[in-house]
Amino acid sequence: MKHMLDNGWEIYPAGGVTGEAFYAFHDNQKLFLKRNSSPFLAVLSAEGIVPKLVWTKRLESGDVITAQQWITGRKLEPNDMNGEKVAKLLKKIHQSQPLLSMLRRLGKTPVHPDMLLIELENQMDQALQLNDTIARTIRYLNKLLPTVQRNTLTVCHGDVNHNNWMLTDEGQLYLIDWEGAIIGDPAIDIAPLLYWYIPEDEWEGWLHNYGITLNDQLQTRLKWYVLYQTLCSIQLYNDKGKLEESLFWIQYLETLL
């Protein structure tokens, strides 16, 4: 990695699961480097959704390195998620035709609720599926499928956890970590954000900032997707051997049902 920058640059791993991200420092210059980022990054940068893409270079090995603008700021806290900026940026993402076009060019096809549920059931451990709360949830999701099956399709981030939102010192908000982006119902993003961060009596205000009105049909979609996302979290923590976290989300399912 270091040989592709001028002498004097210091490069350090940025952590993360993939080990493909790095920090680069030289004098007063700072860059965030990533190996083999998706071409989707360029469109996200152009749309102002992630920090600015400074350059892209292809190495002799075939690897592609991207350099993004270094930002100073902080991750959002859970109580920040009710802010108007979050609602408006998510709306911008969901309405972006350039993002949608690029994902399609990259071969992404829409995911519908029935597809998501079949994939989840196929991947979920048998022991989890025998859990009464999980079994009832899966039956409930199957029952609701006809009412949530076809809706507007947009680019969805897929993991709107507060740690993926970055607020710069200048007040610019970004949504980062787009590896799980999909084309689907925008409720995939909206549902966990509302259920996990926003008091229910404030949903209408948040949705007003986003630009839509809460009605029975939307309420059903939100519940379907938060149940689905919660099941995914249970399986994820179970895979990681974090059984306490898995149990926490199973208990959370009870409150939703």
Automatic annotation (TrEMBL):
Protein origin, superkingdom: Bacteria
InterPro entries hit by this protein: Aminoglycoside_PTrfase, CcrZ_PhaseVar_Mediator, Kinase-like_dom_sf
Residue ranges constituting the Aminoglycoside phosphotransferase domain according to the UniProt record: 28-217
Pfam annotation, one family: APH
Protein name in UniProt: Phosphotransferase family protein
Source organism: Perspicuibacillus lycopersici
Lineage, top ranks: Bacteria, Bacillati, Bacillota, Bacilli, Bacillales
